Structures are given as structure tokens and as C-alpha cells.
Inverse folding.
């Protein structure tokens, strides 16, 4: 069998399976070399078969399952760009995790990446739901992997919310598929500008359930705390492996199913704004990054809601760029977690002295997420901002996104590097991160620069490449855009410096910031005992009243029916005759007027 | 030992780097610890902001039709948005910050030593 034949065979299989097979190898690997083969070779193989041969828009495999037609592998330009982001994240996460000998975490990470990859390449709703559920279980294992009490409880909360989302998604997919008579994505809707996007009717019962399930996975407002609760409780590598997949997969599903659905614009805009306020207050820098993820996903959700070719390109580009720069920021915080044991800002500061490479990587990640021109974030976010600016009636949304852009600079651009590596000297002098971590950070930082400086290849991979390349030629590096973005950033930095100088920047303090999760972590558990006391008192009063009423009734009955009671007394015959006459008269009256 | 003797090492001019500091940090970051560095950077950032607004006035060819097209709008918006985000941390922190063991304790026990 030739190499070409092998590649043909491999390319006919959903690339997610390649990662899942690599996970089996990682689960039994005993030496670093075998682990490296699984952790890096698996994603490399998936990338190879994904790009070979170019089969976008073609259903590669179709199977029958319980009488339903399935399509295990249906790549197109939308799934390809997200898939590229996932395999890059898997490979970089693999390099980053090499120092940590934990086979469970290695295998869970690869299964998670593989199932997320499988879900976005799935050509039908059944395959999609199965992959998404496997991803949920694998991701929960990554939360449990820290093997601490808080991680255990965070993992249980994570599983509960994710299973709820999975159930909604499954029920929605079943209803919608049965209603339409097919589960094949290609048959659910027509092409829009040559691509299958916005194919589910959100007004149908099935569509609503799918929307709710995907919304939880995207961490929509009020259901976002699974994200901020789980990431900070994982191991130093866990957050890096967790961060790229679930929310990004949700963005992909929103684009595929609900592109152009107006409520997404406002949901996304709200998602960009409120995490800014929480990130300012938060002391744990990994939690700050989790809120930052929420904020960045908001940009993508808003772009999907706008539903133009430019905005969908922007959402896809930002999803991949975000995977790279947010992964990089989580890597730098993971290095601190490994070396210092905590990522709480109140216990950090001045780490640049002994961790300069990590500091440099963090600075690259920070300027990338802040969308400094010629870094990855600028390449992707500019499309979303331009789409929002040019949309009719979008002024308020655009201003919200602009506010959130300044907010991103605050929490991820300045707070993360400044509080960890500069600020006041904590006196801690930790060792620099291990080589494999530095390598992963270096590669991620390099990617941030490559995407920022040479965006052409990146734009050619976007869902609508012609429109993307047109935007690149006309808008991306236009003087106006660059000046406006630089103005926003420079004056925001100036504001930071003035506020810091005037000691108006809130000091980092230990503590937890309560969020909507308070309802199920504190409110509901305490509501039972709190309500029990007044309810017991109420029940006692009711019981007392009931006993009084029943006692009176018993007494009355005794008076009436006892041997010497009312009905047993002898009455005169005349009284009986008068009573009978009255009854007779009453009957006659009734019959007379009837 | 007199107070002067204790203070004297701190009053010396800052050295390039510190004992045990990574050479790359000495090369790239040690200048940040100079007392004047913060002020110099702040002045440079302010100057850059002014240059950007001036550049926008010169280069921009679009007519000023509303507030959004006024030169410097992005800069002023960025300054105000950043300030609002940061300053909101004071009241919101007072309202929403709880002791670290808040979720680990039963009602009324938060913050107590156990």
C-alpha cells in the first residue's frame, strides 16, 4: 500500500478520529517520546488529512445508523478554518503539557480536542451531538485532573451545566431532525453565498432547544459561570487545553445554524461588556482570562448575529486568532501557577526578573488580544468592528463593542502582564518555565505575529475568502483604521498610567467576586434551611387552628347527635305538623312559580 | 547600628539588574525600575496620542458630520471607556467582593477561622 493510498484512506475519515486514536496511544504511553508522538503527532496527522486532498463542500462519508442517514465527515470552508484552529491548539497544548506526566490528562485532552474537531466536521445532527457529548465528558476530566477539593466540586458543577446543555442540544436536534425528516446538515437548509450557514429555524421548537443548548456552551450571559468557575480550578496545563474548544465549537454551531439571527447581536454585545467589570475586580488572573474569554466570544457571537460575509469571516478569523493568543496568555499564567503555585494578583508582581521569556510571551499575547495593529487580534477583530460600524441601526452595538475593546486592553492587555510580571515586587524569584512550556509559548507568540504581519494566507482560509482578501486589500491596513485603533489603545494606556499614578486603580485584594453563580452555589443551598423555619412556624399555626376548628366541630356534633342531643329530644306533635305543613307549602310555592 | 547605616544601601543609585536576575531581564526590563521611567513613558504616551490626533486631522479626508467623525473621537472614547471600567471597580468591588472562603462556608460563617 503506498503512502498516497494511506493518505486517501486517512482523508476519508473525520480528522477527529485521528486525535481520538492518538489519545489511546497517550493513555498507555510510558515514556516522553511516545507521549510526544501522541500529543504532537496526532494533531499533525489530523492537520495533514484535513488539508489532503482539498475536499471542501463534499460529503466524504455517509453511513446508515438505526435507519437514519449519517454523514460522519463533511468539510467545508467554515469547518476547515475552525478545524485549523483546533489542531493548532491541540499541537501547542501537547508541547506545553510535555513536562507533566499525567496520562489521564494527556488522553482526556486529546479526546476533547478530537471530539470537538469531530463535531465541527460532522455532516449530520446525530454525529454532531455524539461528538459534543464525548467532548463534555473529556473536558470534565480535565477539570477533575487537578485532584483537589475545589477542582472536584467545580468539575461537578461543570458537568451538571454541560450535561444540561447537551440534553437541550440532543432534544433540539432530535425534534428538528424528525420535523424536517432528515438529520443531514446539507439537507436542512440551502446555501448562502455558497456556504451552509444559518440553516436552522430558531422559531421552531427544535431550533429553540438547539439555540439554548449551544447558548450555554457559548457561555451566554447568565449561563457563563461554568467558564469562570472551571478554568481557574484546573491544573497549569488544564486551562490551556480547556480554553480553545467548547466555546469556539459553540461559535461554529451558531454560525452554522443561526447566522443572521438578530438576537445574537445584542446577546454578543452584552457578552462583550459585562465581563469587563468583573475582570477589573477579579484577583485570580486565570479567572480574569476566563472573563476575557467570555468577552472575546461575545465579539464572535455578535458578528455571527450580524450575518454578513464580512462579519462571519470576522467571527471565524477571531475564533482562530483567539485560540492562539488566549492559549498563549493561559500558557503564561500556567507557567506562573507551576512555578509560584498561585495566579492570584495580590500574591504576584515583579516576576519579570527571573521569568523574562514568559514575560515577553505574555506581552505578545497581551498586545495581540488588545488588537494592536500588526498583531493577530487586529487582523481578526477589525473585520467585526467594520461589519458592526457599517450595519444599519448598529450605533449602540458598535459603541458597546468599542467600549469592550478598551476593556480588553484593561484586563488582558495591561492587568495580566502588569500585575503578574511588573507592578510591586512580591519578592518571589521563581525559576523560568520549563523548556517545553517556553517552546509552546514561543510558537504561539510567533503565530500571533505571523497572523498579524502576513494575514494573506490566513484570510485565504476564511469561509468567504474572496471577500476576506478584498477587505485585506482595501480596509485592514488603511491609514484610518490603524490611526483609530492606535488612538483607542494609546489613550486607554494613558488613562491607566494617570489612574495608577493618582492611586485610583483599585488595588488587587484577596477575595471572591460573586456573580450569577451565587444563585446555585449559595442562594439555593441556603434557601431550603432559610425557608424551613418560617414554614415550620406557619405549619404550627395552621395545625393549631385546625385542631381548634375540629374540636369545635366535635363538640357541636356531640350536642346534636348525642343521646341527650338536639335531634334525640322529644318534640310536641303540633311542632312536627307545623314543620310538615311548612315543607308542603314550600314545595307548592316552588311548583307554582316554576 | 544607626538608622543612616541601614538606609544607606537603599539610597544608592539603582544598579543595572539585581543579584540573581535573569540576563534577559537585565537587558530588557531593568530600566523600568528607574524612578523616572514611569513618568517618561507617560509623557511619551501622551505625546504619541497628540501626534495621532494631529495626524488624523491632517490625513483624514472624511467630512465631520457627527460626533463619531470628529478627529480624536477614538482617543477620547478610549480614555473615558478605560477610566469608567477601572473606576467602576471601586463601588462594584465593595458590593460584590466576599472573603475567599465564601462559598466553602455555611451562612454566617464566611471569613471566620475554623
Amino acid at each position: 500500500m503506498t503512502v498516497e493510498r494511506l493518505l486517501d484512506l486517512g482523508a476519508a475519515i473525520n480528522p477527529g478520529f485521528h486525535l481520538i486514536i492518538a489519545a489511546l496511544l497517550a493513555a498507555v504511553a510510558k515514556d516522553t517520546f511516545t507521549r510526544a508522538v501522541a500529543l504532537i503527532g496526532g494533531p499533525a496527522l489530523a492537520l495533514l488529512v484535513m488539508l489532503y486532498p482539498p475536499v471542501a463542500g463534499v460529503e466524504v462519508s455517509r453511513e446508515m445508523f438505526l435507519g437514519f442517514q449519517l454523514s460522519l465527515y463533511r468539510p467545508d470552508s467554515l469547518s476547515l478554518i475552525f478545524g485549523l484552529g483546533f489542531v493548532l491548539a491541540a499541537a501547542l497544548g501537547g508541547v506545553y503539557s510535555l513536562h507533566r506526566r499525567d496520562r489521564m490528562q494527556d488522553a482526556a485532552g486529546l479526546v476533547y480536542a478530537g471530539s470537538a474537531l469531530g463535531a465541527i466536521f460532522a455532516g449530520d445532527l446525530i454525529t454532531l451531538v455524539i461528538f459534543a457529548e464525548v467532548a463534555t465528558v473529556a473536558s470534565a476530566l480535565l477539570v477533575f485532573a487537578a485532584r483537589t477539593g475545589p477542582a472536584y466540586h467545580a468539575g461537578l458543577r461543570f458537568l451538571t451545566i454541560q450535561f444540561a446543555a447537551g440534553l437541550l442540544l440532543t432534544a433540539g436536534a432530535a425534534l428538528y431532525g424528525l420535523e424536517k425528516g432528515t438529520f443531514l446538515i446539507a439537507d436542512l437548509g440551502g446555501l448562502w453565498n455558497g456556504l451552509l450557514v444559518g440553516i436552522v429555524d430558531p422559531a421552531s421548537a427544535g431550533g429553540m432547544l438547539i439555540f439554548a443548548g449551544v447558548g450555554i456552551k457559548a457561555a451566554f450571559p447568565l449561563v457563563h459561570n461554568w467558564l469562570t468557575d472551571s478554568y481557574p480550578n484546573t491544573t497549569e496545563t488544564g486551562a490551556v487545553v480547556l480554553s480553545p474548544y467548547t466555546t469556539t465549537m459553540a461559535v461554529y454551531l451558531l454560525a452554522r445554524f443561526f447566522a443572521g439571527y438578530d438576537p445574537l447581536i445584542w446577546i454578543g454585545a452584552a457578552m462583550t461588556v459585562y465581563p469587563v467589570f468583573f475582570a477589573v475586580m477579579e484577583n485570580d488572573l486565570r479567572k480574569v482570562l476566563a472573563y476575557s474569554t467570555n468577552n472575546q466570544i461575545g465579539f464572535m457571537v455578535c458578528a455571527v448575529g450580524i450575518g454578513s460575509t464580512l462579519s462571519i469571516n470576522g467571527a471565524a478569523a477571531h475564533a482562530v486568532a483567539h485560540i492562539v493568543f488566549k492559549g498563549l496568555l493561559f500558557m503564561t499564567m500556567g507557567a506562573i501557577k507551576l512555578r509560584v503555585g498561585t495566579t492570584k494578583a495580590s500574591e504576584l508582581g515583579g516576576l519579570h526578573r527571573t521569568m523574562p521569556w514568559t514575560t515577553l510571551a505574555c506581552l505578545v499575547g497581551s498586545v495581540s488580544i488588545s488588537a494592536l495593529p500588526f498583531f493577530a487580534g487586529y487582523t481578526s477583530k477589525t473585520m467585526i468592528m467594520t461589519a458592526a460600524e457599517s450595519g444599519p441601526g448598529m450605533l449602540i452595538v458598535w459603541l458597546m463593542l468599542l467600549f469592550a475593546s478598551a476593556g480588553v486592553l484593561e484586563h488582558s492587555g495591561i492587568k495580566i502582564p502588569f500585575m503578574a510580571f511588573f507592578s510591586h515586587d512580591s519578592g518571589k524569584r521563581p525559576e523560568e518555565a520549563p523548556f517545553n512550556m517556553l517552546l509552546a509559548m514561543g510558537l504561539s507568540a510567533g503565530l500571533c505575529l505571523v497572523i498579524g504581519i502576513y494575514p494573506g494566507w490566513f484570510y485565504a482560509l476564511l469561509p468567504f475568502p474572496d471577500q476576506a482578501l478584498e477587505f485585506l486589500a482595501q480596509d485592514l491596513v488603511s491609514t484610518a483604521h490603524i490611526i483609530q485603533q492606535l488612538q483607542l489603545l494609546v489613550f486607554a494606556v494613558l488613562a491607566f498610567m494617570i489612574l495608577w499614578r493618582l492611586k485610583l486603580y483599585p488595588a488587587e485584594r484577596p477575595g471572591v467576586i460573586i456573580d450569577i453563580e451565587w444563585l446555585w452555589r449559595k442562594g439555593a443551598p441556603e434557601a431550603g434551611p432559610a425557608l424551613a423555619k418560617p414554614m415550620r412556624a406557619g405549619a404550627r399555626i395552621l395545625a393549631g387552628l385546625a385542631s381548634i376548628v375540629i374540636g369545635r366541630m366535635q363538640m357541636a356534633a356531640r350536642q346534636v347527635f348525642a343521646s341527650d342531643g338536639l335531634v334525640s329530644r322529644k318534640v310536641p306533635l303540633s311542632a312536627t305538623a307545623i314543620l310538615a305543613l311548612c315543607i308542603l307549602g314550600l314545595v307548592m310555592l316552588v311548583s307554582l312559580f316554576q | 547600628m544607626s538608622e543612616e547605616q541601614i538606609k544607606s544601601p537603599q539610597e544608592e543609585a539603582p544598579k543595572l539588574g539585581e543579584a540573581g536576575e535573569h540576563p534577559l531581564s537585565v537587558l530588557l526590563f531593568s530600566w523600568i525600575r528607574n524612578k523616572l521611567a514611569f513618568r517618561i513613558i507617560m509623557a511619551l504616551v501622551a505625546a504619541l496620542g497628540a501626534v495621532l490626533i494631529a495626524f488624523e486631522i491632517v490625513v483624514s479626508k472624511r467630512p465631520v458630520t457627527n460626533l463619531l467623525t470628529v478627529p480624536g473621537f477614538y482617543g477620547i472614547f478610549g480614555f473615558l471607556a478605560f477610566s469608567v471600567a477601572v473606576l467602576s471597580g471601586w463601588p462594584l468591588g465593595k458590593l460584590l467582593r466576599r472573603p475567599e472562603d465564601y462559598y466553602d462556608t455555611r451562612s454566617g460563617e464566611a471569613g471566620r477561622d475554623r
Notes: Chain B has a mean pLDDT of 79.
